[in-house]
Structures are given as C-alpha cells and as structure tokens.
Amino acid sequence: MSDEAQRAKDLLRTLAHKGFKRDRSETKAYRYTGGLKAAGRDVSVSITFPDLEFTRLPELILLNPEQEAPHVVAHLTASGGFCFARNEDLILDRYDVGGTALMCLELARRGLERALTHKHLEQEIAQEFPQHWLGMPFYYDIAATDHIHATLYYVPRNREPNLVLLTDRVDVLKRLVSDEAARRNVIASSRPAFVFCSNTDLTFGRDHRQPLTLAAFIAWLESVLPNTGKRAITELAGRFPDHLVSLFVNAPNGCVGILVDASLPILRGAQRQQGLERIAMANAATIGVQRYSGTRVDLPFIFRRNLNSHPPLTDKRIALVGCGTIGSHLAKFLVQSGAGHDDGTLLLLDNQTLEPGNVGRHYLGTTSIGDSKPGALKAEILRQFPETNILPMTADAVGFLETLAGYDLIVDATGEEALSMTINHHFVAHRYDHETAPDVLHVRLFGNGAAAQALLVDGPNFACFKCLKPDHSGNWRFSPLKSGVSAAQMVAACGEGQYIAYGVAAPVMAAALALQLILDWKNGTPTPRMRTIRIEKKDTQEVADKNPDRSPRCPVCGNHQAE
Ligand SMILES: [Zn+2]
C-alpha cells in the first residue's frame, strides 16, 4: 500500500470512530461530515483536509449554523468556515495522522463551545475585531482622534484597482503610489468616507453580529458609540447627489466599515439630501451593506510592529558615511527600521559612482552604473519608501566631518582604514573639546570578507577605533583573522586599483551586525559595543563580543580620563 493510501486509511479509521463519514463528492480534498457536541448541542460540521501532508489546517464548516449555532458570531470566515486555530499557531504532525485528526476535532469542539457559551467572547472578538467583521480588506491610516471626513482611494495593482486605502490625509497615498501621475488618477477616482472615532475597543455584544443591512450596522454602531445613528444617516447622504458616503469606525483595536450601493433603486428616487436621509432611514432594514475590514498601514505600525521592545529610528539624525558594499545594504536596513521618517534624517555621504565591478555585492543594480552612489541609493530607497527624508551628499568625507557634529549617530561604513581613523579622531577629539559629539559606529570587513566587526564609540569609558590598533604598523587587538591570514589583493586593471574579492553575503552580514548594534544603541542597551561575526570559519578565530577597554597607547584618547 502506498504511503498516501495508508495515510488516507488511517484518517478514515480515526474519523469513522468519531462518527464521521467521507464525503466522496469532494474529489480534490479529504472531506468528512459528522457532528461535534458543544455546549449541550449537536453541531453538524464538515472537516476538510486539503491534503494528507498536513501543511495546512483542515477547514471546518458549520453545515446548519442558523438552526444549530445561531449565536456564533466569532471566528467565522467569509467563506462560511469556522476558524478553530491559526495556521501559524498550530503545527500538524505529518507522522501521526490519527492523533492529528483527533486533535483538530477537539480544538474545533472547544472553539465551538466557547463561541456558543459566549464565555470571554467579547474580549476574544475584540482581540481581532476586523477579522471577525468578515469584510473586504482595506488599508487605513487615520490621524484624527475625533469623527472626521476621510477619503477612500482605489489603488491599482497588477492593472486592477484592487487596493483600498482609507485616510484623512492625501499625503498618505504617496506611501502606496510613488508616481505622481498615477497618484492624480487615483485621486480623481476617489470616494468620500466618514470615520467615527471610538476610544474603546470594538466588539460584538450578545445581540449583535456582522451587519448585513444598514439598520443592523446602525444598531451595532449605537451599541459602540451611543447617539451616532442619526449622524451616520446624515453623513451617508452628505454628498448628495454625487456619492453615498461610506461609513467607518476607527478604534484602538481596528477599523471597520460599510459601503452602501448607490445604485439601489430605492435610493435613486431621492430628490434632495433630506429626502435621501428619510428614504435611507425608513428602508434601512432592507438596504444591504458591503462590509470592510481594515489593516493598518500607518508608519508607527509599519516601523514598530517587528521591533518588539526596540523603538524605531524614526526621530534620529543619522549620517551614513560610505555608500559602498556595506553602506548600501545598511541604508536600506536603516530606512526599514524607521530612519528618515517623522523628524528623523538620513544623510548618505560618498564621493564615488557605481562601477560594474561593484554591482555583484552592492545593493544597487546594473541600471545605476555610472550614477553617484548616494543619489542613486536615495532614488532606489524612495521608490520603496517615498516618505523618507534622505539627504544625498556626493562629497569627500574628510572635508565634511565638521558639518556632521549635529547628528545623533555617524555610521562609518567606509571600509577604508585611514579614513576610519580620521573620522574616529575627529569625533573623539570633538567630544573631549566640547563634552559632546555624535556617537560613531564603525563597521568593516576583515580579510576576504572572512569576518565582520562593528564598534560603537559613544563615550570615553571604552575603546575608540584607534584603541583597537594603537600602533600604525602593529596588529589589531581584537582581530578575528588567524595569524598569517590577510586579505588577498586581486590584481586589477590598470587604474582601477587592487581590490579584495568577496561576494554579497559578507557585506549584508556586516550591515546586519551594524543595524542590530544601532537598534540596541537607540534602545539604550548598546553593550557589547564591539561585536564580531565570523563568516569564513577556516581563516578566523573567535573574538568575544564585549565593551573593549581603552589602550593607554592610543594617541587619541590615551591621555584623557575615563568618566
Ligand atoms: Zn582611543
């Protein structure tokens, strides 16, 4: 017997034992029908396993919800399914077909029990309210903290207007549509909306469920925001005779709304706005609505969501010196972490143009060959994050350091030892002279991309960059390279200069190392200030991450006192 046949047999035997029967009318999947006992009721369900690999959860459908589970409003899906667990929360065991099937049935039964008894249900619904609303998807960014007029934009993707954006500021549209001409088209086809603001979480009380009609929506709205029903009708008709206004509610736990079809014959009879209001009010129970369930697209959500305890870099002034292999990837990482947004600035400084030889390990591609690195990097990042505040500067870093004194953080990704020493000297000396200076992070590769090391210099208590190599002809104190290993210089064409060969992996790892240290710096937890990654094990040795001590022989800070 084949593995698949054996698994199908195991599944059938297990489910038959629970009174389930295979539904042979479903030929593409394994569908069984039967009953689950929950809250003293028998609930008829079907359970469908899309395949026997168990990579996805089976789908549970209530076969007779009106009679057997009339009060179930939570965890329903738009296609009539009952969501008993989330795919990402539950990993099925491919090697235990029977046990896995029984576990799914039991989870489904417990979910139904909770839904039928309403125990803790309002909080459970509130946790993921827009999902429970069972609406069409839309994105929203609403700044107002009061009821406000807003706009629905239909954003084209794959040549169809299939993204819906709700916002109270037209600038937000730039986030999804960077091209100005395309934005004008989207604005021309926009629709009016009205957003009620709720300071408390949205949920369904015992008497409410997903509204199908205007009357049901208004009844639910009144349960959330008392005395707003009449306002809702007034706003709905407020753009007579051009459009019906869509109605939304924005709350701490999400945003949902409804659209009313303006072509309904009963609504088209109105001669005046007041007439439309009267007709809508009188016929609210028969006027169908299309529900919409929102997903946040605001910048705090975008930049905070994945950072957990780390605050994003949105309010920092960061200067990235060196837009080469490490710097180009790091620039993108920084912007992804919020740099250059809100009050923040990201300055990109480099004096080189992109050459064909750079492309194999740079963030930019062949279409940027011949472009200034900072300018092309800005253009590429703005294509993805159009709201970023980036200052590109095509200049030699040495003549520019004085103007960087007002920044919060200087990132030295030049990878040139002499230039790094100059940057270090300038800002360490500046700190001793002025008692304040930007913090400086140096990041670089050792050997042929064999290891990456980052060092944060943020005060006199620990090593500066020169402390790591106090003697010009001496060794690095914390070198990850085994002795005898050095960077193999490749002989290059005349005029191009020698170069060190390594692929894109090494600079991306160095950029990632630097980013994590920068996020920890922003979080106020920069220890350990020196961090090393071994990329090629055979040429490298372990270097412990630590706050490195200063060298008494350092010509920059050797004579100064620690704090
Ligand atoms: Zn030093």
TrEMBL record:
<dbReference type="GO" id="GO:0061504">
    <property type="term" value="P:cyclic threonylcarbamoyladenosine biosynthetic process"/>
</dbReference>
<dbReference type="Pfam" id="PF14461">
    <property type="entry name" value="Prok-E2_B"/>
</dbReference>
<protein>
    <recommendedName>
        <fullName>Rhodanese domain-containing protein</fullName>
    </recommendedName>
</protein>
<feature type="domain" description="Rhodanese">
    <location>
        <begin position="6"/>
        <end position="48"/>
    </location>
</feature>
<dbReference type="GO" id="GO:0008641">
    <property type="term" value="F:ubiquitin-like modifier activating enzyme activity"/>
</dbReference>
<dbReference type="InterPro" id="IPR032701">
    <property type="entry name" value="Prok-E2_B_dom"/>
</dbReference>
<dbReference type="InterPro" id="IPR001763">
    <property type="entry name" value="Rhodanese-like_dom"/>
</dbReference>
<dbReference type="InterPro" id="IPR045886">
    <property type="entry name" value="ThiF/MoeB/HesA"/>
</dbReference>
<dbReference type="Pfam" id="PF00899">
    <property type="entry name" value="ThiF"/>
</dbReference>
<feature type="region of interest" description="Disordered">
    <location>
        <begin position="540"/>
        <end position="563"/>
    </location>
</feature>
<dbReference type="GO" id="GO:0061503">
    <property type="term" value="F:tRNA threonylcarbamoyladenosine dehydratase"/>
</dbReference>
<dbReference type="InterPro" id="IPR035985">
    <property type="entry name" value="Ubiquitin-activating_enz"/>
</dbReference>
<feature type="compositionally biased region" description="Basic and acidic residues">
    <location>
        <begin position="540"/>
        <end position="552"/>
    </location>
</feature>
<dbReference type="InterPro" id="IPR000594">
    <property type="entry name" value="ThiF_NAD_FAD-bd"/>
</dbReference>
